[in-house]
Amino acid sequence: LGAGNGNLQGPRHMQKGRVETSRVVHIMDFQRGKNLRYQLLQLVEPFGVISNHLILNKINEAFIEMATTEDAQAAVDYYTTTPALVFGKPVRVHLSQKYKRIKKPEGKPDQKFDQKQELGRVIHLSNLPHSGYSDSAVLKLAEPYGKIKNYILMRMKSQ
User: Fold this and answer.
1) Is 123 a member of any domain?
2) Are 25 and 72 in contact (CB under 8 A)?
3) Residue at 83 is within a domain
4) What is the model's pLDDT at position 43?
5) Mean pLDDT, all residues of the chain
6) CATH assignment of the domain containing 57
7) Has residue 15 been placed in a domain?
8) What is the DSSP code (8-state) at residue 127?
9) How many domains does the chain have?
10) Within a domain: 64
């Protein structure tokens, strides 16, 4: 037990004086295309929980905040030895030096109300046939429930 307590206290003691490192993975030099958000999030999703993300419109940069610094560091470490690809082309992945966390935009109360109404409006279809249908045929299934703003069709998962 004595050795175990020493091991637990060591990292805690070192963390007290340490400045918090970034939880934000910075991805650069990607090409834009359909399902860009999905492609970018898939790069870091295997390393832990994604808590927020920001994809810049005017320049090809994205910031993805992980739940922990360790998760973000694991993703960056992995892509130092393995090429990170978006649409089959290499991208740069590193910890953000500028942002430790991504702040959620603060708006007027009525704007927040509108955002709350948009939450959870997702239809998940599963057990689709492996082939023999078009994207538009699947979209027609969802049309009675409202305007379709975006969709992801995962044929390999039949979803």
Assistant:
1) no
2) yes
3) yes
4) 94
5) 78
6) 3.30.70.330
7) no
8) S
9) 1
10) yes
What pTM value is reported for the model?
0.54
Task: Give the strands of the sheet with 24-28, arranged side by side.
Answer: 50-55, 61-66, 24-28, 89-95, 84-86
For residue 91, which phi and psi values (nearest 5 degrees)?
-130, 165
Query: How many whole angstroms separate alpha carbon 42 and alpha carbon 39?
Result: 5
- Amino acid in the structure at residue 7: N
Q: How far from 89 is each of 16, 37, 42, 93, CA to CA, in Å?
A: 40, 15, 14, 13
Range of the structural domain that residue 87 is part of: 24-95
Beta strands (DSSP E) in 82-137 are: 84-86, 89-95
More confident residue, 61 or 13: 61
Structure tokens at 66: 């992980």
Task: List beta partners, residue 85.
Answer: 90
**More confident: 146 or 113:** 146
